[in-house]
Amino acid sequence: MIMGYQYACADFTFPLLPHRNVLELIRLMGFDGVDVGLFENRSHLQPSIVFGKPSENGRKLGCHAKEAGIAVADVFLQSDIDFSTRAINHPNENVRREEREKFKKLINYALAAKSGHITCLPGVYFKDETQESSYQRAVEELLWRIEQANRAGIIFGIEAHLGSIVDAPEKAEKLVSDAEGLTLTLDYTHFTKVGIPDEEVKPLINYASHFHARGAAKGKLQTILPENTIDYNEIVKEMKKTGYDGFIGVEYTWTEWEDCNRTDNVSESILLMQRLKQAEKEY
Fold first, then answer.
1. Which stretches of the chain drop beneath a pLDDT of 70?
2. What is the CATH number of domain 7-282?
3. Cα separation of 219 and 170, whole Å?
4. Average model confidence (pLDDT) for the chain?
5. pTM for the whole thing?
6. Distance between CA atoms of residues 243 and 2, nearest Å
7. How far apart are CA 112 and CA 86, in angstroms?
8. Which of left, alpha, beta for 278 (phi over 0: left; psi -120 to 50: alpha)?
9. Which residue among 101, 114, 197, 246 has its CA within the 20 to 30 Å range from the CA of 227?
C-alpha cells in the first residue's frame, strides 16, 4: 500500500510573483515539489528562452528548487497558447520536426533539473483532413516521444484536455492503448467541466503517472472547494487500490482563460492539499 503521497504545486499558480519567490512560497505552503510550466507566452519560464541552453538552464532551475527545499515534480511543455499552431501532430512536416527537437531539449532540461517526469499535449483534430488522419499522426508522434523518453529514463505523460484529440475518457483510454507505453498526466477537471461524471474518468487512474487536482464543477474548469463536485476522497481511494505512486499536483492557475482568475489560489491550494491528505488517512 502506498503511504504518504508527495504533493506539488504549479509555478503558474502565481504568475505575478518572480519565479524564485514562487518556489519559496510553494515550500512555505507545505508542498514537496513544483510542477513547472514551460508555456510559450504565458508562464515564468519560456521554452524559446530556456531551450537556448537546456541543460544549463535546467540545472539552474534544479538549483533554485533545491535552495527553496522542494523537488521539480514535472515539466510541462506547451509551445503555443493556441493548441493547434504547434501541435505535435500538425500536418506541416516542418512544424512536427521542430516540435521533435523541442522535445529532445525538454528531456535534457528536465533531467538537468532532476525531474523524473515530463508532460506534453496530445494533439488536436485539423479541419482540412479526416479525424482519423489527425489521430494516427498523433499516435506516430507520441510513439516517437515515448521511445525518446524511455531511452533517457524519464517518464512521459500527456494531458487529456478539452479541445484535444482526447476530450473524453474513452478516447484517452484508446490513445493509451494505441500508443504503447504512454501514460497520463490526469486532470479530472477537463471532463468535469463538460458534465462527465467521475465514474467515467476513474478507470484512467490506471494509466496515470502524474495527477492534477483543483476544484471544478459542471461549467467551471476551476472553482472554489465549496462548489467542487469532484470526489477527491474516492480518487485517493482508487490511487491506493491501483498502486499510483506519482506526485499529486495541485494545479490552480491564474488566467482569464476559462475564468481561472477568480479563486484565492493560496487558500484553495492549501485547503485542497489538506483534503487530499485527510483522504489518505481514511484509506
1. 1-3
2. 3.20.20.150
3. 20
4. 97
5. 0.96
6. 6
7. 25
8. alpha
9. 246
What type of residue sits at position 106?
Answer: L
Does the CA dihedral 118-201-273-1 come out positive or negative? negative
Specify the length of the chain in residues. Answer: 283
**What is d(CA 108, CA 114) in angstroms, rounded to the nearest whole number?**
10
Asked if 124 and 141 touch (Cβ cutoff 8 Å), the reply is: no
Q: Is 73 helix (H, G, I), strand (E, B) or coil?
A: strand
Output the nine-digit C-alpha cell for 161: 484536455
Residue extents of the structural domains in the chain = 7-282
Q: Where would I find the beta strands (DSSP E) of 111-221?
A: 117-120, 155-158, 183-187, 208-213
User: What phi, psi does 195 have (nearest 5°)?
Assistant: 90, 10
C-alpha cell read off for 77: 511543455
Share of the chain above pLDDT 90, in %: 96
In angstroms, the CA 47 to CA 216 distance is 29
- The full DSSP string for 99-168 is HHHHHHHHHHHHHHTT--EEEE------TTS-HHHHHHHHHHHHHHHHHHHHHHT-EEEE---TTSS--S
The answer to whether 118 and 75 are in contact (CB under 8 A) is yes
Q: Contact, 119 vs 185, CB < 8 A?
A: yes
In this structure, what DSSP letter does residue 41 have?
T
Report d(CA 48, CA 54) in Å as an integer: 10
**90: CB partners within 8 A, 6+ apart:** 84, 96, 99, 126
Please give the grid coordinates belonging to residue 102.
523541442
